[in-house]
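Hey, I'm writing a tutorial for new members on how sequence and structure tokens pair up, and I'd like a real worked example in the thread rather than a made-up one. If someone can provide the structure for the chain below, I'll link this post from the tutorial.
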Amino acid sequence: MPSTTLEPLPTPTASDLAEGTATLESIYGLSGVTKTYGSGATAVCALDSIDLTVSAGEFLAIVGASGSGKTTLLQLLGALDRPTTGRIELLGRDLTSLGERELTRLRRDTIGFVFQQFNLIPTLSAADNVEVAIATRHESSAQRAERVAELLGSVGLAHRAQHLPSQLSGGEQQRVAIARALANRPAVLLADEPTGNLDTASGSEILELLERLVAEGNQTIVLITHEPRIAEAAQRTISLKDGRILSDTQPGPG
């Protein structure tokens, strides 16, 4: 798979951070996070007292069976939902204290999303699908085109830039989706079962790409999966069961 060297992400500056559980070296800080749906006798606790720190440049896998709470946790990390109780900091900003407009801006500028479904616009080329993510930026068309070419090159698809999604394999479509997610240079990439719709070979290529994003670009990645085999690609694995952290396997020395 052809590629170009990735541009390292900048380390968050002190001005980006506030006092709390997050630090200059961390992206996320979660403290006592609980998420409950419903109330009274019918209440369902999806997450129960989650404490978690995610460091800058870390590749973290969150693994668990259906109903373990991993999707709920991803939604909270992505500022798509709010916890019932507890605190979630992203780059030192308390997500629970932000209004909807601020959360929308934060998701756009700070978080990249990759889903099991590729969610590409079928009538647009690979290049145009990536450019959609930066269309609102105050840049010239030449600057946007240069950024799109850089992104597609980084995922090995420079030669497929003008192809429609229907002309791309599943693995290639997911690589376009990853390029789109990286368009605004996010502080963190949230990947929800990114290999779920791919065959084994294509899934392995996607995992290799994610590993390279971390190794070469210092990209922070949080990956959600129900497969322990997929989680093995990450530096650190958290297992969830019934909304609680069952285990947290830290990377070994070296």
